[in-house]
Each structure stands twice: as C-alpha cells, then as structure tokens.
C-alpha cells in the first residue's frame, strides 16, 4: 500500500487532481462557515449622553435561539433600568433568517469614558463574541443652545463634535429638533437632508428622544444623527437648513385630535469647520490612508504545505473610522508567493458604519521549497486623537514547504528465476457472434391496454373545456372593472407585504415607509373607489368615519400615516422596530376588507 500510494502522489496527473481537491476543500469549507455561522452584534443608539439620560444597548442574535434574557457583564459607570426583547423571522432568497433582539435601557451614574466590554455567548455550540463599544458620559451638554432660543416653540440646532478635524476622519454629528413642553405632537415635518462642501454626509438616523433645559424652559429634543467624513483640506461647511413643521397643542378630543395647530419655520445657518492635511513627516511606507483608531488580528494556515498549495491569510482590522475605505497595502516583501486578489467583508456595530471589523481573506501559494516563512503583516493608520501615525504588526509565520512531487517511472512486475519455457496463450481480440438467441420475452403490453390509448383521444376535449371556462372567467372579469381592480390590489398587497418584510430585515427605513404608504393608498383607493395617488390621512375622517367604521380601525390608520410622516425626518434605526410595525399594517389591511365598497 505504501508503494501504491507513493506512485499515485508522484504522477503529474495525480498531483494536479490532489491540488484541485485541496482548493475545492478550501472553498467548500469556507462556504459552509459563511453560510451557517451564527451572529452576535451589540449596538448603541448614541455614543454620548448627559448624566440623567438613558442610552439603548441592543444585543442582536442571528440564526440561533436564546432562552431567557442574556446577562450583561458589570459595566462601571452604567446601570440597567429596563429590558425588552423581540423576535422575527424572514425569508431572503429562499433562506429563512431568524433574529432575536434584546434591548437594554442603561443610565450613566458617573461622567467619563465608558467601555462596554465584548459580550460572549454560546450559540448552537459555538462560542461567539460581540465587539466592545465606547460611550462618553458628560456632566452637561457642551453644545447647549443659547438661552435666547428658549422663547421659540420649536427650533433646529446643529451639533458637531469637532471644529477642527483631519482629512479622511469620520465623525458623527446631530441635527436636533427642540420642541417646547407645550407642544403635544408634530405633523408634516419638512426637514431636507444636509448638504455641505468638503464632506460626505450620510442620511439622518433616528435617535432616542430626551429632555433638555434651555434658559428656563423645558424642551423635548428629537436627535437626528448623521455620519460625516472630511474629503478635502481647508475650510469645510455644513448647511444651511431651511424647513418647517406643524405644531399641535391644546386640548385633545375623544379621538386624540389636538385643538390648536401652528406652522413653525426651522432654520439653521451654515457652519464652517477646518480640515487639516495628514502630516508628511514619519509617514509609514505602507500607509494606505486609513484614519481612525484600530486593532489588528490575523491568522495563517495551513503552515505545512507542498509547493503550489493554497494558504489562507485572514486579517481582521477592528476599531472606529471609515471602515469601507480601508485597503491592504501591497507588501513587496511577500516575494516567492503567488497571491490572488483578496476578498473583504465588513461587520459594523453602530448605525453609521464607523465602528466594527473589516476582514480580509487572501489565498496565497508558495512557489518553491526555499520559502521558510511568511513575512510579518503590517497595517498603518493615522490616529487623529493623538495626531500621529501608528503601525500594527503581526509577526512572521513559519512555514514548511515540501516538494510538489517527483516523476517516478512506473514499476513493471518481472518474474525472477530464469526465462519461462511456457508460451502464453494468444489473446482473443475478436469475440464470435452468438449463434443461439435464447428465450424471447415480451417488451411491452398491447396498445389497447395502455392508459395512453384512452388519454390521447380525451385530451383535446379536456383542453377545449379548460379553454372555455378560462374564456368565460376572463370575460366576466373584463366586464367588471371593480372586480378587476380588487384582484389587482390583492396581488399588489401580497407582493408588497413580502417586500416590506425584506425591507425591515435589511433595515431600509425610507423604502419601508414608502412601501407602507403605497399599500395603504392602494387599499383605501380600492375600497373607496377613488384614485390611490390622491389618498391622504384626511380621507380617514372625511370618508371612512361617516361609514360607521370602528374607532379602533380609524385610530390604527391615523397612527400608520403619522409614522410615515415622522419617518421622513427621523428614520427608524433598527430592523426589529420596523418589523414591529408590520403586524399593525396587516391588521389594518384586514379590517379594511370589512369596509363595503
């Protein structure tokens, strides 16, 4: 067996086959790990707060089941004041994805920088861990508006963490909507997206509301955080912003409608910031432009291979910064290896994509047996907090590279002990024709006894009957436009509900509420026999209430329309909150079926 094994591994064709098998195994097991791996993610709804305020920590478990609420480790400076949980399942590309969310409301009890450590759990037999999170607790708001604004019923205030930053630095700002305590609710907010010169600005996210004192008046603050990345040096600007909102107040009637309303203008002047260039001195030779604060881990394997065999190099860069712009340097010290283009993936732990881990995976293969190690892996970045470059290093990895194989002539068996006197029998190259056919057997039953003999004549008759029934049904629908529209709307709602589940799972807030409003308009338009595009919240009281619709149904429709209005300026930030709205939509659509057309 040893000789046989050696001869197979030594042949060129066999070596190619084994090499293909190794590559296939690498791709196969990589695919398995990618497809079936469970996920654990921890996120914060904000990265700073004032003493006395709360912050929300969401722990999300994907493709695994957890019984009970996980226990958080002790976090100095924070205390738990409340917990909730939710669960949802979605189908994406034919695959079911399950998600459990555990929401912890935390309060800061002392100022300073707070670190929420990595949370570890056993999920489906795997030990998984979330990324650590950073939080800053302050005694007072450093960006508090001036007391002169305390007389306004509503105003906007732009908060930016720095007045001076470096090109390539990623930060999070906030556009805050302040509402005096006399304001009961708002309607029809018109707040355009931010624009700026020299910044890449992200869309508004929805933050957790909180209370603040401006002058001697109490305000409810609705934060709208956004991501900002400086892309050039020199003076940069954000704004101006010009918007409006309808303020509702006074007493409320039986249906929750306010007795007073007023239009308020919202204006924010443009603000200027300074962007500094990165230092030229002491720039690392392999620096690729990364700005932020990072750590690096790596793995190399296998380390005992034959020349030409694949080695997988995985590099994980974790921290805070513009993760999507991080690239690996081209290290010329990796001579003697054939390198394939790397692939990358990003796992973020915040709603802006600035905090998380970017993982690179690259396949390399040693080209000769002279290679003894893979050189050290280095990654350089600029830390704007300390204003200097830093270089992370993973040490060189020892490798054992054996020859890819030597051609060996195949062994020929030879009989020892002298030449044989026996003449081998001649080979029989041509086989004679068989002279006796043997016994015969039936190969098929008679045609008249087969089912096809009866089915073939009846098929045209059945086809004619089916076509006749289909034609009558088509004519009936064509002559009944109300029925035709009802069927079209039913198909639209089935497709829309399937799409809205996917949008919730993908956390696409804008598309989610656009689809929600579209489904409500289509259903109300079909029930009221009017154009769907002209449907607004006003038809609830104008056309549905006179028909004797239950108040619970009308209230549910009001809430859905108001959620669509609020989402225009403060999108919901998490998929589980979007998923919680879907049952309310489905219930409202079902109740509308009871409305007589």
Describe this structure in words.
This protein has 5 domains: 1-36; 39-138, Immunoglobulin-like (Sandwich), CATH 2.60.40; 147-276, Immunoglobulin-like (Sandwich); 284-402, Immunoglobulin-like (Sandwich), CATH 2.60.40; 481-592. Helix 4 (481-505) packs antiparallel against helix 5, helix 5 (509-528) packs antiparallel against helix 7 and helix 7 runs antiparallel to helix 8 (575-592). Strands 10, 12, 15, 16 and 17 form a 5-stranded antiparallel sheet that branches. Strands 22, 24, 25, 26 and 27 form a 5-stranded antiparallel sheet that branches. Strands 1-3-5-4 form a 4-stranded antiparallel sheet, with helices on one face. The protein is of the alpha+beta class and 597 residues long. The protein contains 8 helices and 32 strands.
Features:
five-stranded antiparallel β-sheet, 25% helix, 597 residues, Immunoglobulin-like, single chain, 8 helices, alpha+beta
Question: What is the strand and helix layout of this fold?
Answer:
Blueprint: H1 2-10, H2 12-36, E1 39-44, E2 48-50, E3 54-62, E4 78-92, E5 95-108, E6 112-116, E7 120-123, E8 126-129, E9 133-138, E10 154-159, E11 164-166, E12 170-180, E13 185-190, E14 196-197, E15 199-201, E16 210-214, E17 217-230, E18 234-238, E19 241-252, E20 258-268, E21 271-276, E22 292-301, E23 304-306, E24 311-321, E25 337-339, E26 343-348, E27 355-366, E28 373-374, E29 377-383, E30 388-394, E31 397-398, E32 400-402, H3 451-478, H4 481-505, H5 509-528, H6 539-544, H7 551-566, H8 575-592
Parallel strand pairs: 2-9, 11-21, 23-32
Antiparallel strand pairs: 1-3, 3-5, 4-5, 6-9, 7-8, 10-12, 12-17, 13-19, 14-18, 15-17, 16-17, 18-21, 19-20, 22-24, 24-27, 25-27, 26-27, 28-31, 29-30
């Amino acid at each position: 067996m040893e000789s046989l094994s050696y001869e197979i591994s030594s042949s060129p064709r066999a070596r190619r086959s084994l090499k293909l098998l190794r590559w296939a195994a690498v791709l196969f097991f990589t695919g398995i790990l990618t497809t079936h791996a469970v996920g654990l993610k921890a996120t914060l709804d904000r990265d700073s707060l004032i003493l006395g305020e709360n912050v929300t920590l969401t722990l999300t478990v994907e493709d695994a089941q957890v019984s009970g609420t996980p226990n958080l480790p002790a976090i100095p400076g924070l205390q738990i004041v409340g917990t909730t949980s939710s669960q949802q399942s979605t189908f994406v590309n034919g695959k079911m994805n399950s998600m459990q969310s555990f929401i912890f409301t935390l309060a800061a009890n002392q100022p300073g920088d707070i670190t929420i450590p990595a949370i570890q759990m056993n999920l489906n037999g795997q030990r998984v861990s979330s990324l650590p999170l950073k939080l800053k607790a302050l005694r007072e708001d450093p960006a508090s508006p001036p007391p002169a604004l305390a007389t306004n019923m509503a105003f906007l205030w732009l908060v930016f963490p720095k007045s001076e930053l470096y090109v390539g630095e990623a930060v999070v700002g906030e556009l805050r909507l302040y509402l005096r305590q006399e304001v009961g609710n708002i309607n029809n907010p018109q707040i355009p997206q931010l624009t700026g010169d020299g910044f890449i600005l992200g869309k508004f996210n929805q933050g957790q509301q909180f209370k603040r004192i401006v002058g001697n008046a109490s305000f409810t603050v609705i934060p709208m955080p956004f991501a900002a990345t400086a892309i050039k040096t020199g003076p940069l600007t954000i704004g101006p912003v010009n918007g409006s909102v309808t303020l509702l107040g006074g007493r409320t009637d039986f249906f929750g409608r306010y007795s007073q309303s007023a239009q308020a203008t919202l204006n924010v002047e443009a603000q200027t910031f300074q962007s500094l260039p990165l230092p030229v001195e002491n720039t690392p030779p392999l620096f690729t432009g990364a700005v932020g604060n990072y750590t690096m881990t790596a793995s190399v394997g296998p380390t005992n291979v034959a020349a030409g065999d694949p080695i997988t190099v995985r590099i994980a860069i974790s921290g805070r910064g513009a993760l999507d712009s991080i690239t690996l340097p081209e290290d010329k010290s990796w001579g003697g290896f054939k390198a394939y283009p790397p692939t990358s993936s990003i796992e973020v732990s915040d709603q802006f994509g600035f905090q998380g881990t970017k993982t690179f995976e690259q396949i390399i293969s040693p080209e000769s047996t002279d290679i003894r190690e893979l050189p050290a892996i280095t990654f350089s970045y600029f830390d704007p907090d300390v204003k200097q470059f830093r270089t992370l290093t993973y040490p060189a990895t020892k490798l054992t590279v054996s020859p890819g194989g030597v051609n060996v002539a195949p062994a020929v068996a030879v009989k020892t002990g002298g030449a044989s006197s026996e003449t081998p029998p001649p080979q029989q190259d041509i086989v004679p024709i068989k002279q006796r056919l043997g016994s015969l057997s039936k190969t098929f039953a008679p045609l008249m006894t087969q089912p096809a003999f009866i089915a073939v004549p009846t098929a045209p008759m059945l086809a004619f009957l089916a076509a006749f029934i289909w034609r009558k049904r088509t004519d009936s629908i064509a002559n009944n436009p109300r029925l035709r529209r009802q069927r079209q709307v039913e198909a639209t709602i089935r497709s829309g509900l399937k799409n809205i589940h996917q949008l919730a799972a993908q956390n696409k807030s804008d598309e989610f509420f656009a689809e929600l409003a579209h489904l409500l308009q289509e259903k109300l338009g079909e029930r009221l026999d009017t154009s769907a595009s002209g449907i607004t919240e006003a038809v609830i009281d104008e056309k549905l209430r006179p028909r004797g619709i239950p108040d619970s149904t009308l209230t549910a429709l009001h809430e859905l329309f108001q959620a669509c209005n609020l989402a225009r300026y403060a999108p919901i930030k998490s998929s589980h909150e979007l998923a919680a709205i879907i049952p309310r939509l489905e219930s409202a659509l079902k109740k509308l079926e009871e409305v007589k057309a």
